[in-house]
């Protein structure tokens, strides 16, 4: 039959002691470091996802603000254009009324000059007719 030798028992005990020592000295610290790294990687991944989510949120907010600013600038531009057109129409109206007033004044002046010239012409005609009559009668 099989005999268990004392060396076998000593080697068996030494192997178990070596396994325990290796577990406490090498494997446990290695597993702790590995677990810490795994946790750090998970935290970094979560932080990356959160940063990406925040970035997308900021990007969407900025895009919305840009859209609102563009819309507002278009409204301001349209308002300025309409105000400019209204001012232009007012200026044109003012100029037209001023020109019409100047035309009325010029017509009055022309009519006065025409009347004056007609009177002068009538007087000259009268004088010329007098002179002609005097010459014919002499």
Which features does this protein show?
138 residues; mainly alpha; 1 helix
Structure characterization notes:
With 138 residues, this protein is mainly α. Helix content is 96%, strand content 0%. The protein contains 1 helix and no strands. The longest helix has 132 residues, at 6-137. It starts with 5 loop residues before the first helix and ends with a helix. The mean pLDDT is 91.
Write a brief caption for the model:
This protein is an all-alpha fold and 138 residues long. The protein contains one helix and no strands.
Secondary-structure element pattern, one letter each = H
Q: Count the strands?
A: 0
The share of residues in helices is over 70%
Radius of gyration of CA atoms, rounded to a whole number = 57 Å
User: Which regions contain 5 or more consecutive residues with pLDDT less than 50?
Assistant: none
Helix count from the secondary structure assignment: 1
Topology:
Elements: H1 6-137
């Amino acid at each position: 039959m099989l005999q268990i030798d004392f060396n076998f028992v000593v080697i068996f005990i030494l192997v178990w002691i070596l396994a325990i020592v290796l577990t406490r000295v090498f494997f446990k610290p290695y597993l702790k470091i590995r677990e810490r790294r795994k946790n750090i990687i998970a935290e970094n991944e979560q932080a990356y996802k959160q940063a990406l989510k925040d970035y997308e949120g900021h990007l969407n907010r900025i895009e919305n603000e840009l859209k609102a600013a563009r819309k507002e600038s278009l409204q301001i531009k349209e308002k300025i254009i309409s105000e400019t057109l209204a001012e232009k129409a007012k200026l044109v109206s003012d100029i037209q009324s001023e020109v019409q007033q100047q035309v009325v004044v010029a017509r009055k002046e022309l009519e006065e000059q025409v009347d004056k010239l007609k009177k002068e012409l009538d007087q000259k005609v009268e004088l010329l007719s007098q002179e002609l009559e005097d010459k014919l009668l002499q």
